[in-house]
Amino acid sequence: MLFMIIERFKDCNPKPIYQHLRDKGRGLPEGLKYIDSWIEPNFDRCFQLMECDDARLIQAWILHWGDLASFEIVPVVPSKQTRELVEGKFAAPE
């Protein structure tokens, strides 16, 4: 399952995050896959796409970072898969 993790840097300050990443690594438990991330230009939020089958792995990861940011966890479905599901519900043309 895919999750969009919305991370809010404390005080819009990315330096502690990147120092922690450099010194301690990403802190991913086995089974949690980091896919990619995007940062807002004002350093307010980071959007990270992650994949796992057990949401407790995300909880373990947050414990590794929790003192530096706050987190929102949003389960997501790829647009292509959603489109296929919805188009399968269209009525056949007459």
Brief characterization of the structure:
This protein is 31% helix and 32% strand.
**Mean pLDDT across all residues, rounded?**
92
How many strands in all? 4
- Briefly note the structural class of the backbone: alpha+beta
Portion in helices: 25-40%
How are the SSEs placed, and which strands pair?
Elements: E1 2-9, H1 15-24, E2 33-39, E3 45-51, H2 56-65, E4 69-76, H3 79-87
Antiparallel strand pairs: 1-3, 1-4, 2-3
How does this structure look, described?
The chain has helices spanning 15-24, 56-65, 79-87, and strands at 2-9, 33-39, 45-51, 69-76. The chain starts with a strand and ends in a 7-residue tail after the last helix. It is of the alpha+beta class and 94 residues long.
Tags for this entry?
single chain, alpha+beta, 4-stranded antiparallel beta sheet, 3 helices, 4 strands
